[in-house]
Amino acid sequence: MAQVQRMSRLMVKTLRDDPADAETLSHKLLVRAGYVRRNAAGIWSWLPLGKRVLENVTRVVREEMDAIGAQEVLLPALLPKEPYEATGRWEEYGAELFRLKDRKGADYLLGPTHEEIFTQLVKDQCTSYKDLPVILYQIQTKYRDEARPRSGILRGREFQMKDSYSFDTSDEGLAESYALHREAYVRIFERLGLKHKIVSAVSGAMGGSASEEFLAPAPAGEDTFVYCPSCDYAANTEAVTFALAPVEGAEHGPVEELDTPDTPTIETLADHLGVPASATLKNLLVKVDGEIVAVGVPGNREVDLGKLGDHLAPAEVELVTAEDFVDRPDLVRGYVGPQGLEKVRYIADPRVAPGTAWITGANRAGFHAKNVVAGRDFQVDDYLDVVVVEDGDPCPSCGTGLKLDRAIEIGHIFQLGRKYADAFQLDVLGQNGKPVRVTMGSYGVGVSRAVAALAEQTADEQGLCWPREIAPADVHVVAAGKALQTELALDVAEQLGAAGLRVLVDDRAGVSPGVKFTDAELIGVPKILVAGRRSAEGVLELKDRRTGEREELTVADAVARLRG
């Protein structure tokens, strides 16, 4: 028998007004509807209604993981430092890693992901090719010391996540495990009712090669992605690439210095010369593990420091400061040009292709140079796609102008390869009796984040509006107020529960019908059944929360309709 939950006994306190610190729709509504409660910045409690929704998402994830043969385990969240030192991630994670010491001074961390620990587990348990392939997963609380936790449960310091790991003896096996997860994720998000895009991505601190993100388009999203309206190309902006296309046969005059006083910025230079910013070459100075590096991009584009950092990882990238110029008289602030630079590595975006000519700094204050040609007057040490992607940039697949959109990351899959297996010498005995190095995949679903993403995508002006698969109940029965109506509401709730439905019944005494109706809209159960003015006739009103459609039904017809 399904559960019947009386609101008179439910710990729920709805709010009429938005919390003062709430920025996103999901943050406002999940708090107002009594699903979550803030304990501290980025730390949230799940209240009874919220816990039901969270458990429903967890159930869907678990069912689809089990369906591909994955095996569930539960590993500790408190982890020793040593495995993360072995892979370099103790340092690579930087300030986002929660670090702590025990009473004996030993270092520990709160797990953000568990690649190292799963690798050690498989090394201990699997010794032969006969033990593989294997897929292991857990659904667990993860920790990340966010600098600015915000947007409610969208960006917290602790969060619920499903992380799974595949272990295979060949790259072909890894590709199969990756495909299994990709298909399972599509089924998960379809069952949850989440609109999503699969986009190419970068691996970042996770390492590995192939990587894709599952994004839920929403204005509150912190991820920006691009998609092509003419083909199926879609990518995280950090994964978009621009092909290097050298310019052949162009005629350019010799380098010519220009007197350009008080023009240390692209804007002032372009105004002074009366040229578009795209004709100039911007040279951004950064420090890579303490070494000054110049990054050249067209003057009308910005350097994406996130992209640059991904390209150069695990090296640390930071902007230069005024102090960095003190011991480098060859670097003239605001007037740096790539021609004649010494002891400086020069990285350029592919748009600064060989044969292109630019107006750029002349390496002395108040002067610029024109007709500075890439490949003739300066050499590029490394070409890296590092500009901020803009709306209308050409699609790498078909050339059509790309479109930008915002989204919430709800899943990420990686082909890790042998990075972690190498760190822990994870080998099994192969068919030929010789050791075989295992190859891995890593796959995550943001379980608590999926709740927020669904709220963002499905809510309306009245409140939350859950898909049935994850709603806290199948039907919300509302007693309009009088004793007869309450009696009928409780009776029909019991019948619905006996029919196998999950029922939330508002039997609160002393609460006006208007407040009950408002709360029913706010809480967002997909069907609302009202015992109102025709209760004496045994007639109820059934309302679809999403469409607003209403119809009057007898008790028997209502039970039959809702039971399906």
UniProtKB/TrEMBL annotation:
<comment type="subunit">
    <text>Homodimer.</text>
</comment>
<dbReference type="Pfam" id="PF00587">
    <property type="entry name" value="tRNA-synt_2b"/>
</dbReference>
<dbReference type="InterPro" id="IPR002314">
    <property type="entry name" value="aa-tRNA-synt_IIb"/>
</dbReference>
<dbReference type="GO" id="GO:0004827">
    <property type="term" value="F:proline-tRNA ligase activity"/>
</dbReference>
<dbReference type="Pfam" id="PF04073">
    <property type="entry name" value="tRNA_edit"/>
</dbReference>
<keyword id="KW-0030">Aminoacyl-tRNA synthetase</keyword>
<keyword id="KW-0436">Ligase</keyword>
<dbReference type="Pfam" id="PF03129">
    <property type="entry name" value="HGTP_anticodon"/>
</dbReference>
<dbReference type="InterPro" id="IPR004154">
    <property type="entry name" value="Anticodon-bd"/>
</dbReference>
<dbReference type="InterPro" id="IPR006195">
    <property type="entry name" value="aa-tRNA-synth_II"/>
</dbReference>
<comment type="function">
    <text>Catalyzes the attachment of proline to tRNA(Pro) in a two-step reaction: proline is first activated by ATP to form Pro-AMP and then transferred to the acceptor end of tRNA(Pro). As ProRS can inadvertently accommodate and process non-cognate amino acids such as alanine and cysteine, to avoid such errors it has two additional distinct editing activities against alanine. One activity is designated as 'pretransfer' editing and involves the tRNA(Pro)-independent hydrolysis of activated Ala-AMP.</text>
</comment>
<keyword id="KW-0648">Protein biosynthesis</keyword>
<dbReference type="InterPro" id="IPR036621">
    <property type="entry name" value="Anticodon-bd_dom_sf"/>
</dbReference>
<dbReference type="GO" id="GO:0005829">
    <property type="term" value="C:cytosol"/>
</dbReference>
<dbReference type="InterPro" id="IPR033730">
    <property type="entry name" value="ProRS_core_prok"/>
</dbReference>
<dbReference type="InterPro" id="IPR023717">
    <property type="entry name" value="Pro-tRNA-Synthase_IIa_type1"/>
</dbReference>
<comment type="similarity">
    <text>Belongs to the class-II aminoacyl-tRNA synthetase family. ProS type 1 subfamily.</text>
</comment>
<keyword id="KW-0067">ATP-binding</keyword>
<dbReference type="InterPro" id="IPR036754">
    <property type="entry name" value="YbaK/aa-tRNA-synt-asso_dom_sf"/>
</dbReference>
<dbReference type="InterPro" id="IPR004500">
    <property type="entry name" value="Pro-tRNA-synth_IIa_bac-type"/>
</dbReference>
<dbReference type="InterPro" id="IPR002316">
    <property type="entry name" value="Pro-tRNA-ligase_IIa"/>
</dbReference>
<dbReference type="InterPro" id="IPR044140">
    <property type="entry name" value="ProRS_anticodon_short"/>
</dbReference>
<dbReference type="GO" id="GO:0002161">
    <property type="term" value="F:aminoacyl-tRNA deacylase activity"/>
</dbReference>
<dbReference type="InterPro" id="IPR045864">
    <property type="entry name" value="aa-tRNA-synth_II/BPL/LPL"/>
</dbReference>
<dbReference type="GO" id="GO:0005524">
    <property type="term" value="F:ATP binding"/>
</dbReference>
<dbReference type="InterPro" id="IPR050062">
    <property type="entry name" value="Pro-tRNA_synthetase"/>
</dbReference>
<keyword id="KW-0547">Nucleotide-binding</keyword>
<keyword id="KW-0963">Cytoplasm</keyword>
<dbReference type="GO" id="GO:0006433">
    <property type="term" value="P:prolyl-tRNA aminoacylation"/>
</dbReference>
<dbReference type="InterPro" id="IPR007214">
    <property type="entry name" value="YbaK/aa-tRNA-synth-assoc-dom"/>
</dbReference>
<protein>
    <recommendedName>
        <fullName>Proline--tRNA ligase</fullName>
        <ecNumber>6.1.1.15</ecNumber>
    </recommendedName>
</protein>
